[in-house]
Amino acid sequence: MSAPSPKATIAGIRPYQAGKAKAAGFASPIKLSANENALGCSPKARAAYSAAADTLQLYPDPQGVALRTAIAAQHDIDPDRIVLGAGSDEIFSLVCQAYLSPGDTMIQPQFAFAAWAIAAKAAGANVISAPERDYHVDVDAILARVDASTRVVFVANPANPTGTMIPFADIARLHHALPSNVVLVLDGAYAEFAEHRQDYEDGLRLARTADNVVLTRTFSKLYGLAALRVGWGYAAPKIVDALNRIRLPFNTSTGGQAAAIAALKDSEFAARSLAHVRDGLPGLQSALTEAGLVTLPSVTNFVTALAATPDIAQAFEHGLAERGILVRGLANYDMPNALRVTVGDSQQMQAFERVLQDIRL
Questions:
Q1: Which tens digits make up the pLDDT trace of 137-168?
Q2: What is the dihedral of CA 271, 273, 276, 280, to 10 degrees?
Q3: In contact, 223 and 263? CB cutoff 8 Å
Q4: Is the pTM of this model over 0.70?
Q5: Distance (Å, rounded) from C-alpha 261 to C-alpha 266?
Q6: How far is CA 30 from CA 97, 303, 329, 347, in A?
Q7: Helix, strand, coil in percent for the chain, rounding step 5
Q8: What is the mean pLDDT of residues 320-344?
Q9: Which of 49, 111, 217, 317 would bridge with 329, disulfide CB 3.0–4.6 Å?
């Protein structure tokens, strides 16, 4: 008798690889590998999370009404069109479960967030990656690959792992050219870091009026709540209804909901976090350039840099780790000659620059 076999597309999934958190010989390495908030999280969010400990015996609100209301007030949107997720990752999975069947196709840019392909293949779909133009999303390349089997298109703007962005006019053009039965998912995990750009929009305005757009956001980056896994999506009522039908019950915790509400209200911490990143990006880019690397233009809280060869990139990554500093090598993103480095706090950046000078290749 044969053993159970998973769907054929499961075997083709590369398990998600998180940014490294450990360095041999260092109890507390400097972690610049996961794009976490260098300032931590809002003290108000931490206090709200601690207060939730008094109700650990109770299930959380399965609808997250208070959090959806707070998000709606922050962004001037309809709370009934918000779906909560365990990070925006869960929203991606829900979209793929709801709209992809075996034989369908999901299209993504060449350098795409790994969770998208995992979600699509888990649903039994095929994944097509469209070439990028100088590490920027190429709308025309995506559209050239759309056919009758296409059901979902994913785009992050700004993008991870590259850190680059495209003008909103290109996103609007992409949406206009897509068939109406194709769901366009706009991943806005790093949206707040780009909102100062005049040519940038996160897609919320488009999601307000379009029947086939899902905008996702997260509390993991700007708000520093990565450990609590809270994200949300905004879409047309029919899409939200479909996602809620398959969303697991109690998928966001009481503590996570409370901390997220408090984080939204702490505009001072958010502003300080944004200022820290914008002040820190030029120095990080300069340090990488002086080390002989080529940096991609970033509108996020990290910089992606290219080495001349994969061996050089690996040597930098290992050399930094041997000195207690963790950065993200991007070989698993099909960028073997690239490193991704988060903007850390001032002490972390000073240590990074000092060590980087020691291991120039």
A1: 999 999 999 999 999 999 999 999 999 999 99
A2: -130
A3: yes
A4: yes
A5: 9
A6: 37, 16, 15, 10
A7: 45, 15, 40
A8: 95
A9: 317
Choose among 151, 154, 138: nearest CA to 186: 154
Q: What one-character DSSP code corresponds to residue 148? A: T
Q: Please report the domains of the chain, with CATH numbers, ordered by start residue.
A: 17-41+268-358 (3.90.1150.10), 43-265 (3.40.640.10)
Residue 227's alpha-carbon distances to 122, 135, 150, 231, 259, in angstroms, are 24, 29, 34, 12, 11
Angle at 257 between CA 251 and CA 261, to 5 degrees: 150
Tens-place pLDDT, residues 28-73: 899 999 999 999 999 999 999 999 999 999 999 999 999 999 999 9
CA distance 7 to 2: 15
Both structure tokens of 76? 């001037």
Handedness of CA 247, 250, 251, 254 (dihedral sign): positive
Rounded Cα distance, 122 and 118, in Å = 6
Per-residue model confidence as pLDDT tens digits over 78-114 = 999 999 999 999 999 999 999 999 999 999 999 999 9
* The residue to which tokens 């779906």 are assigned: 83
